[in-house]
Design goal:
disordered N terminus, 10 strands, single chain, alpha/beta, about 15% strand
Length: about 325
């Protein structure tokens, strides 16, 4: 059976095809495996070989550092397909989207934390020969990119965090209910995947009101060898959520480079009251909000999002 995810691009826009070379690379297969003999970059952190997709063309010229994008919790690199193509076309920079560990096509591990996800990005940069990059991260991916910027500022040209704050709040902790809802879905069902999705959707209605969110989550339901499973490593996410994902680790240093926090005007994950605490970590930070957008602002208001991102990148 085909194990590719169904409907993996969670975006509200339809963009015309761009004349670009798109190189999809999975560290788990094909020809772009990292060297098996390489030692981890840290004695304490064991990086994984992330799956990634590169959007590039001969016209790029390599004059500017590439852009690396990490999705949020429950997402994958495919969520950023259309935006990445357009961002590449608008900036003439290579754009690399990654699958975080326990997500998409990247390996499943028992551990999940921001130091580990940052190390994974660092490991990928080393393998690709990228000395410096502009980082974009949404939600969980935003926090991972924040951590990398603070711990290894020499690797970061600029940082864009999308609708997330390093400050810990109740709204992030409440996402545990979404994890619980997914874990409660019965996947031991015979029948087509459309039937399983419908039953899973019905099950989640009582705890997840938004049909858009439910459909996004269901993009992780896949069929492998005539059995149904979650593409994300749900058990690892559950074990690590409270202490390693819902909370941002304490840090003692700052990232002084160009920093941009973009929030959804209707979202609760980047609050104006947190700005001062954010400035303590990112002294050069700039804030903007997209009116009428929620947590998935890049999918809900793609044109507005791209305008803000490209304007910021043009200044660094």
């Amino acid at each position: 059976m085909n194990s590719r995810p169904y409907g993996t691009e969670f975006t509200s826009m339809s963009l015309s095809a761009m004349a670009t070379v798109i190189k999809s690379k999975s560290f788990l297969s094909m020809t772009c495996l990292l060297k098996e003999t390489r030692r981890p970059l840290s004695t304490k952190l064991e990086p994984i070989k992330m799956s990634y997709t590169s959007y590039e063309s001969a016209a790029d010229g390599g004059r500017k550092p590439p852009i690396i994008i990490m999705h949020g919790l429950f997402g994958c690199k495919s969520n950023w397909n259309s935006l990445s193509k357009t961002l590449h076309n608008m900036t003439h920079r290579k754009v690399i989207t990654v699958d975080a560990r326990n997500h998409g096509d990247s390996p499943h591990t028992l551990e999940q934390s921001y130091p580990l996800m940052a190390e994974d990005v660092k490991f990928l940069m080393e393998d690709l020969g990228v000395e410096k990059a502009s980082l974009i991260g949404h939600s969980m991916g935003g926090r991972a990119m924040m951590y990398l910027a603070v711990i290894n500022p020499e690797l970061v040209e600029s940082l864009i965090s999308v609708d997330i704050s390093p400050t810990n709040n109740k709204e992030v902790s409440d996402i545990q209910s979404v994890v619980d809802a997914l874990r409660g879905v019965n996947l031991e069902i015979n029948g087509p995947i459309s039937k399983v999705r419908k039953l899973a959707d019905e099950h989640m209605k009582s705890s997840i009101e938004s049909p858009i969110l439910r459909q996004f989550l269901l993009t992780n339901l896949i069929e492998v060898n005539q059995k149904y499973k979650w593409r994300i490593n749900l058990e690892s996410i559950n074990v690590n959520f409270k202490n390693n994902i819902a909370v941002f680790p304490p840090i003692q240093s700052t990232y002084d480079g160009p920093t941009y926090f973009i929030g959804g005007g209707d979202s609760v994950f980047l609050k104006p009251k947190d700005h001062e605490a954010i400035k303590n970590i990112f002294p050069s930070v700039k804030f903007d909000y997209i009116t009428g957008a929620g947590h998935w602002l890049h999918a809900e208001k793609p044109q507005e999002f791209l305008k803000l991102v490209t304007q910021f990148l043009a200044t660094v």
